[in-house]
Amino acid sequence: MNKIVLLPLLLVLGTHTYAQTIISGKIRNSETKEAVPVVSVKVKNSLQGDYTNDQGQFKITLQQALPITLVITSIGFESKEVTVNNNQPLTIELQPASILGKEVVVNASRFVQKKIESPVTVERISNKEIIQSPQPNYFNMLQGLKGVDITTSSLTFTTVTTRGFNTSGNTNFTQVVDGMDNQAPGLNFALGSAIGLTELDVDNLEVLSGASSALYGSRGLNGTLVMTGKDPFKYQGLSVQITQGVNHIKKGNSNDPMGPSPYYDWTLRWGKKVNDKFAFKINAQYTRAKDWSANDTTNTNGLGNSKTDPNYNGVNMYGSKTSVDINPFLQYALMNNPGLAPIIDPLLASPSNYVARTGYPEHGYLDENASLFKTNVEFRYKIRPTVEAILSGTYGTGNAVYSNDTRYALTGYKIGQYRLEVRGSQWFVRAYTTQENSGNTIIAGPTAQLINEAWKPSFVESTGEGWYPEYTSALLQALATGADLPSAHNAARAFADQGRPEVGSTRFTQLKDSISKIPTSQGGTLFLDKSKLYNAEAQYNFSEMLKVLDVIAGLNYRLYKLDSKGTLFPDHNGPIHVAEYSAYLSMGKKLLADKLRLNAAFRYDKNTLFGKPRVTTRASAVVEVAKENYIRFSYQNAYSFPSNIQSLQSTLVDYNSYASGGSDRLLNGEYKFTQYPPYLLSSVQEYQQTNDPTKLKQFSFNDIRPQSVDAFELGYAALIGKRVLIDVLGYYSTWKNFIGYVNVANTPGTNNPEAFKDHSTYMQYNIAYNGAEAVNTYGYAASVSVELPKNFMAKANFSSDFLQNKNNSQVNNFNTPNYKFNIDFGNAGLGKKQLFAFNTTLRYRPAYFYQIGFASGTVQASTVIDGQVSYKFREIHTVVKLGATNITNKYYRTGFGSPAIGAMYYVTFAYNVF
Question: Where is this chain's protein located in or outside the cell (predicted)?
Fold first, then answer.
């Protein structure tokens, strides 16, 4: 009996011992002998394996008998197979290898494929490239990619796009972070790095140029940025990066009113694989510095300056948008004192004499303390070796400024994004929510106008007093004493401005704070936006099931809860709910001995604001014409529903001016355009100057509709001699029902054109609407990467974008130079020990025209050089980097009305960065 019991017990113990056989070891670089992290160590023909940690170590608990074969792979090294006959610790060396042409992308067609074989143009940045970059913020690296444009509105707010349509707050460019749409729920534009990945948690970035709606949904017409964070099962250990720098190196530059100021950026990441089933990561990043200042003094009302034009309104002067024709005040003065006729009659010979209130500069007015704090926590649990559950939360808060219809200073904004996902090797189910709080927002234009009205009203009809009556009286007095007209205007302004609170004074701050704390719906300038987004989606890859055809299908549901308390949307009576339903199908097939790959994708989208659903299609072909030489062709017919902002925005952006969506709910509902017709603002201004009613041109309006684009692209990519990678492309697109913006005005309460003579009696609107003409865009681009001996690398790219048949009545936001180029040169490891490294970049942009809601003009040409040199202390896993952006300190802008960007010099200490 005892033998019968003992036998199964021995079998169990034997099985247990067998299951606990552990293979461990360390992977190192064969040339430098340093540990190599994030190396995949897999048991051949098995699901078992591990990734090396930050010390290059791995450990595998075997589920099979020895001997086994380990398959070892890592980007930048030759793959290797090692036979293991016992459980003694291993030391394995990997030979460095070229990575050109071997980069893998996932998001070009949702299938894993080499970048060189992609059916559409896709640019990729790896975490190793981020480490080598001279840019202290990885997000700014994107501006060096082929065909990419950016607008920097603030040190912590950068907007990215491709194919020319470039503006701060671009709603036609999609940003995806770990599968989550990174848009602000209310404003609908991508939030840049505000809630993106922290510096140390980026695995890779992929930029899809041009229309990508077939796979990523409505509003991906200008491109998509896909950001992937690091898997804590792969990237383990504690990493710390500290950057200390200085910006505003003035040197007498008139573009920068500040002196040298410190820049701080501190980032931490901790990834931990607790066991084979559970891992987590914790990320935090804090950035703080004095922001760049927007101080363009170009007069938007004419050619003069503040001393020569009484109607002066500088691009970045706020408050001077208030402009009134003083002829009625002159006529009143003449009526009361006919003896003034010799002075007044010459003035009244002009149909109008417009005078603007005195504006305030941005410096000292808007908060210049730029800051960003973001944190992320993620837990991963492997239900089975191929099934994983992920729970993550990301939170960001800070201060930033962005440009749109005016400049907006966002102080203490808060964004949260939370995700639950379960994924297998062929499928995923994901749900997430994005929640925003606009914090305390200063809307630069109307806040300054209301400050002017608070300390001295422009005109009080009941008493006849005010700034303009005082100005007119002082003007006449100066002329009567013999002053010339320009001097008289300057004297009149000085008189009327007596008692005007200066920027930074106690009185000014009190007025600004009180006005900015009153909601826009109650006559102030405060946003109360707490909109939310809820999203659920699922995807399945049927390729293994079907065998003969690669097929991926997915479903997506999204709900926007627009909640601004009437300050951003017409939601006075409660939140507005907007839902979107989507389904997509992507298919691929290899033919002709795998030399030809065909892909097709279809997407169905329905938005509850619009009656008809839309179908997006994409077809592509990639043919290998010679070994590692590929020609690609793609066509996409993409639709985009107007964003919530383009449909429903109703925001005060100046004292009597609104940024407006183009839905009938607003045009006929809120603004009563049928009852009080709108006229083109340019024609109203012409009428004011000439007093000729025939100059007025009525604006024909319609309910806003979805826009579409037919996009074609032809490209060629090749790897030559394993050391040279080239990529060239050309594209052509036709846009229908293109959504742009138009400035109009009406006179609520009356249809009498005489009302347009008084600036305070009519309302202005910057309205999103569909242009009737078909708009064409086209361009071409080329890039070359050369891997040189001894770890040297050189890169260059050139791109060009053009707009045809634009609707001149629209602000189209096609803000890009006709051509631009970038050059990179660096070394990832100099010398025998490869301890030194450096990288330099050069970006050139010729002058180009830039349109934005509050101003349009020329952005001057710029040549920007960035550089860094670093040294690696291998024994303590530390890198010290000395770097600078815009080394020459020649200030430049990336958008009209945006800040002038000078140099920043910095030192970075990075521990365990890989």
Answer: Cell outer membrane
- State residue 380 phi and psi, 5-degree precision: -130, 135
| 657-660 vs 763-770, strand pairing mode | parallel
CATH numbers and ranges of domains, the chain: 2-94 (2.60.40.1120)
d(CA 465, CA 461): 7
Whether the per-residue pLDDT at 209 is higher than 80: the answer is yes
713 pLDDT more than 80: yes
Handedness of CA 269, 270, 273, 278 (dihedral sign): negative
CA distance 721 to 737: 47
| pLDDT for 5 | 43
For the record, the structure tokens of 164 come out as 């020319």
Place of tokens 């992977």: 27
Look-up of token digits 């890039």? 783
Q: Do 438 and 527 form a contact (C-beta atoms < 8 A)?
A: yes
Q: At what angle do helices 485-496 and 467-480 cross, to 10 degrees?
A: 140
Candidates 175, 120, 119; CA nearest to 142 is: 175
pLDDT > 50? residue 724: yes
pLDDT at 742 over 90: no
Closest by Cα among 829, 748, 847 to 791: 829
Enter the tokens of residue 323.
């402009």
What is the Cα–Cα distance from 563 to 576, expressed in whole angstroms? 7
pLDDT over 80 at 191, yes or no: no
Q: How many residues does the chain have?
A: 914
**What single-letter amino acid sits at 62?**
L
Residue 865's alpha-carbon distances to 94, 291, 862, 886, in angstroms, are 35, 20, 10, 5
Query: Can you spell out the DSSP letters for 853-905?
Result: TTEEEEEPPEEEEEEEEEEEEGGGTEEEEEEEESTT---B-SSTTSPPB--EE
What's the confidence (pLDDT) of residue 251?
63
Asked if pLDDT for residue 653 goes beyond 80, the answer is: no
Structure tokens at 762: 């009519």
Least confident of 45-49, 340-344, 720-724: 45-49
Q: How confident is the model at residue 477 (pLDDT cuts 50, 70, 90)?
A: very high
In this structure, how many other beta carbons lie within 10 angstroms of the beta carbon of residue 876? Answer: 8
Instruction: Tell me the DSSP string of 355-377.
Output: EEPPPEESTTTS--EEEEEEEEE
- Specify the pTM: 0.91
Distance CA 639, CA 479 (A): 61
SS3 644: helix
Distance CA 756, CA 461 (A): 18
Which among 508, 644, 656, 674 has a CA at the least distance from the CA of 578? 644
Of all residues in the chain, the percent with pLDDT exceeding 70 is 97
Where does 230-326 show beta strands of DSSP type E?
A: 237-247, 261-273, 278-290, 317-318, 323-325
* Res 495 pLDDT > 70: yes
Q: What is the pLDDT of residue 213?
A: 82
Q: What are the tens digits of pLDDT across the range 281-327?
A: 999 999 999 999 999 999 998 889 999 999 999 999 999 989 888 99
CA distance 40 to 24: 13
What's residue 757's pLDDT? 74
CA 488/CA 469 separation, integer angstroms: 15
Q: How many CB atoms sit inside 10 A of residue 146's CB?
A: 23
The angle subtended at Cα 682 by Cα 676 and Cα 683, nearest 5°, is 60
The phi and psi torsions of 446 (rounded to 5 degrees) equal -65, -30
Residue 543 burial class via C-beta count within 10 angstroms: exposed 0-12, middle 13-18, buried 19 and up:
middle
Q: Report the alpha-carbon distance of residue 741 to residue 171 in Å, rounded.
A: 13
User: Is residue 378's pLDDT more than 50?
Assistant: yes
Q: How far is CA 233 from CA 272, 277, 440, 663, in A?
A: 7, 9, 40, 48
Q: Residue 409 has what DSSP assignment?
A: E
Question: What tokens were used for 445?
Answer: 């234009």
The CB-side HSE value for 213 (13 A sphere, CA atoms) comes to 28
pLDDT band (50, 70, 90) for residue 13: very low
